[in-house]
């Protein structure tokens, strides 16, 4: 193998490795985000947040609490 072929093979392997790392990281981030969304969609959690907002009167400054 010539030097150019070795460089091409190494570049290809680095690209494949980088793509795999990015894909795995993205899949983990999506999994964490879905878990957070599922948590905040529970009625008990929403009631707990609403009680906390009412207790601290966060609604009085005109801010948006729930989107």
UniProtKB/TrEMBL annotation:
Name used for this protein in its record: Phage protein
Keywords linked to the UniProt accession: Membrane, Transmembrane, Transmembrane helix
Ranges annotated as spanning the membrane: 6-24
């Amino acid at each position: 193998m010539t030097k150019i072929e070795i460089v091409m093979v190494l570049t290809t392997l680095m690209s494949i490795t980088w793509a795999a790392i990015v894909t795995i990281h993205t899949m983990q981030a999506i999994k964490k985000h879905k878990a957070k969304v599922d948590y905040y969609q529970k009625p008990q959690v929403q009631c707990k947040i609403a009680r906390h907002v009412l207790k601290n009167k966060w609604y009085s400054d005109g801010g948006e609490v729930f989107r």
